[in-house]
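Example record

Each entry pairs one chain with its bound ligand, LLP.
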Amino acid sequence: PSGVTRDERGALAVAGLSVERIRAEYGTPAYVLDEDDLRSRARDFKAAFAGHDIYYAGKAFLCRAVVRAIDEEGLFLDVCTGGELATALSAGMPPERIGFHGNNKSLSELSRAVDAGVGRIIVDSFDEIDRLTALAREKNIRQAVLVRVTVGVEAHTHEFIATAHEDQKFGFSVGGGAAFKAVCKILDDDVLDLRGLHSHIGSQIFDASGFEVAARRVLALQAQIRDARGVELPEIDLGGGFGIAYTTQDDPSTPADLADRMLKIVDDECAALDLATPKLSIEPGRAIVGPAMFTLYEVGTVKDVDGLRTYVSVDGGMSDNIRTALYDASYSATVAGRASTADPILARVVGKHCESGDIVVKDEFLPADVQPGDLLAVPGTGAYCRSMASNYNHVPRPPVVAVRGGEARVIVRRETEADLLALDVG
Ligand code: LLP
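Structure tokens for the complex follow.
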């Protein structure tokens, strides 16, 4: 994060607070959030897309303190389950600034969302349209909705997190005609308030041309709807997915670059199709919270394996960061508590779980004198690490410690063995 500095002894500090202090007060492993960094990323998106709406995608990382920060910075919030919705509401997020996603929202989730007055629900299937139409009729409410469409863009990212190709579970296909049918169904029933179309092409995307192709295809459908039904939908949502740098090899776009390209393509296409420019919204998750956190571990063992490489084991692992094992994701690591003049050695940072795939950082050069007791920081762990953390091997999940102006506070406390046992009622 931008608030990280190294002191004269080579120890890292975040917003003026040293990692040693964090270890002493909160223990390891811990996710450390630079709150000003998160807020400034939120503000950068808001400034770049001025006049449009930024929905922070809560799936990347959600807790009440982050909901409040997002609210204070004037962003909107995207939730995709009843649990995320409950977290948002309990933190006081204004419901009209919440969007509700998901390909299989239950009747009870939909009902709660409608009762809470969420600003919009992004509908994802004909079953859901039926369910929501019935609910809205019964409650006599005109719920605002967007229709999620898949535009057939092959986003260059891991296949599990690419979402706009045809053969996957999300949305209504534009090419296959389902999207147009879904729109017609909503317009014919005239119970739901159809505000626009939504497309999300995937996650950790660097090539912004994917968003341009998506915008073009969504707007072509918008024009088709206008021609066939005489309705100009006022909004368009192009989703999230903006890539961040996990290693020095990654070169992400800034919010300003993204805004330039996305706003321009929407303007140009609308001019070409003779459409009024709709209000745009986007849903960045990773790009706001990912770089704002790092994980602080303590090294437990250092093992040289037949001269191949050195395995450096830390006190967490795949339970606090599954992304390396799941997506073959790349991370970096650095000795955080001190400087070293020792030569670099090729190291693999691994966790304490009982399988060999329990890797946090595949390849990293660490100083040859790395040793038990050293602190290790892994940057870029704000998104999809705590939110995808598990209790594998009955390892309690780490806390999230937020630092701002030299002061730290726990915003998600460390799980305890008592927490784990509390669920075990047999
Ligand atoms: N909007 C929708 C509809 C989404 O499905 C997602 C992410 C986002 C926005 C936010 O995408 P972001 O800006 O954070 O890339 N667990 C995976 C990522 C899954 C993303 C799922 N949807 C990972 O760790 O890479």
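The first strand starts at residue 4 and ends at 6.
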